[in-house]
Amino acid sequence: MKLLLTSGGVSNQSIRDALVDMLGKPIAESTALCIPTAMYGMLPGTAVTTWRQIAGQTSTPMVELGWKSVGMLELTALPSIDEESWVPLVQETDALLVCGGDVLYLHHWMRESGLADLFASLSETVYVGLSAGSMVMAPHVGEEFVGWKPAAGGDSALGMVGFSIFPHLDNVMCPENTMADAEKWAARVPVPGYAVDDDTAIKVVDGVIEVVSEGHWKLFER
């Protein structure tokens, strides 16, 4: 997959341009599936936000970009549905729009649903992550971001990239996400870490990492 890992969605023209480049065609000619599953890991507080994200009524743009079509894929439902009913849908879609919420809850359902098993074969699909939807691609998320706890414990995620992500850097709505907090997080995470604000995204194509930003960010090397 081609990865566009954002903190605050497609929040500026630079990130939008990167998305169009990765799609290889205009957004208006591209199809997308919105995956809101991570938000259910933070109920009841996210009940209204979940609807607003799907409806394109939040400050973190993804579904409202002018897609040719947008569907919804709820991962918690997939184990009860025959694979032939949903796997082709994923394979034929140009972009997966993966919402924020609880990252380890999202990780659990990506594996439980079977979606994660498809990722290696989706070479042309653009994966657009928002907050937890981006963090889930990392090997570890950091203890600061453990909310919903998996049965096995720990903070492991998919490990599809070799770095971790600290989102919403210096966002006034997240007072615990300062640069000082990011530095403490990075000291405990066993891989390189990117602290990114909501105007920054990390683009990963064929293993090549590129930071796309109209804001500020920092890479913590190991």
TrEMBL record:
<dbReference type="InterPro" id="IPR029062">
    <property type="entry name" value="Class_I_gatase-like"/>
</dbReference>
<dbReference type="InterPro" id="IPR005320">
    <property type="entry name" value="Peptidase_S51"/>
</dbReference>
<protein>
    <submittedName>
        <fullName>Type 1 glutamine amidotransferase-like domain-containing protein</fullName>
    </submittedName>
</protein>
<comment type="similarity">
    <text>Belongs to the peptidase S51 family.</text>
</comment>
<keyword id="KW-0645">Protease</keyword>
<keyword id="KW-0720">Serine protease</keyword>
<keyword id="KW-0378">Hydrolase</keyword>
<dbReference type="Pfam" id="PF03575">
    <property type="entry name" value="Peptidase_S51"/>
</dbReference>
